[in-house]
Amino acid sequence: MLDIVTEAKIAASRSWDRARRAAFRTRETASPDALARVIESDIIPRLLLAHREVVAARPVAALPMAAIPPAFADQFAAATLTEEVAPLLARVEAVMRGGVDVETIYLHLLAPAARRLGSWWDEDACDFVDVTMGLWRLQEIVHALAALIPGVAVSDSDDHRALFAPAPGEQHGLGAIIVEEFFRRAGWQTWSAPALDEDELVALAAGRAFDIIGLTVSVERHLAPLTRTIAAVRRASRNPDVIILVGGRVFTDRPELAETIGADGTASDGQLAVGLAHKLIEKRRARGVSPAK
Q1: Closest to 17 measured CA to CA, from 63, 76, 81, 72
Q2: CB neighbours of 39 closer than 8 A, spacing ≥ 6?
Q3: pTM above 0.70, yes or no
Q4: What is the C-alpha separation between 96 and 66, in angstroms, rounded?
Q5: Alpha helices, H only, 2-58
Q6: Domains, the chain, ordered by start
Q7: pLDDT tens across 172-188, in order?
Q8: Nearest Cα to 203, choosing from 165, 237, 171?
Q9: Which of helix, strand or coil describes residue 122?
């Protein structure tokens, strides 16, 4: 599969290559701060300008099936390294015209593509800028689909509130955004937050009574401090019965870690997370606890 990455990099634009070279003079001198400045000052403004133009998407054959094969998700992940949001979104829309629903897009295309980008980074097949821009493009696609395909209308009489954010220290929030979209489509009132430190997350929990706070973790070294963070959030929460869910690739093979760090549960994807949240809410109601207000 690494040959897909190689082909994608060869196809990258010259301006994108210049930005990468500026950030990576050598492996020793590159730093996340320097890369972040390149992204903020050069790459993202150029992409935003490009998105105002009408981009002709290359023809893509629709998939006449309800599921998406892993190889297709791998190819889509590679495309995020070189293509802008408009043609990537056109690919997604072509798949949906073939009969694939938006939930399947989230579960079997966008989420696996994000995981593939992460694995390529681990394998040193992609650099920091590659992965960051690929995830940024995937995030923009999620936002575009949310605008195009509304979910269930929120009920004023029996609403649930949920906050989703990457755990403190995490650099990317795509996982939290995808999970939030599943909750929004199920009729929840949802809020999402960018990468926050512990004090900022605690302040959000204290400022509004959330029924659910969901945190995503992709790097195992962030687990140890998360135990302290979850305890601090519970103490400060405006809702004393707040339910804290965790997710991310570190919990996929070791779901028991969720209980170890003090969370109420974990789910392997957004669809399962909604079901788990409703189950935990019903347990709370059985104890005579009303939804957060």
Answers
A1: 81
A2: 129, 132, 133
A3: no
A4: 9
A5: 2-10, 14-23, 32-38, 44-51
A6: 2-148 (no CATH), 161-286 (3.40.50.280)
A7: 677 788 888 889 888 89
A8: 237
A9: helix
Amino acid at 101: D
Phi-psi region of 172 (alpha: psi -120 to 50; beta: other; left: phi over 0): beta
Please, are residues 39 and 22 in contact by the beta-carbon 8 Å criterion? no
Distances in Å between the Cα of 91 and the Cα atoms of 49, 59, 163, 287 are 21, 8, 30, 47
Measured from the Cβ of residue 197, the count of other Cβ atoms closer than 10 Å reads: 11
Tokens standing for 268? 């392997």
272: phi then psi, degrees, rounded to nearest 5:
-70, -30
Provide the 3-class DSSP secondary structure of residue 272: helix
* Predicted pLDDT at 241: 93
d(C-alpha 54, C-alpha 73), whole Å? 25
SS3 190: strand
Q: What would the two tokens of residue 41 be?
A: 């000052």
Q: Which of 275, 271, 221, 212 is nearest to 246 (CA)?
A: 212
The number of residues in the chain equals 293
Segments of the chain scoring below 70 in pLDDT: 1-66, 149-158, 172, 289-293
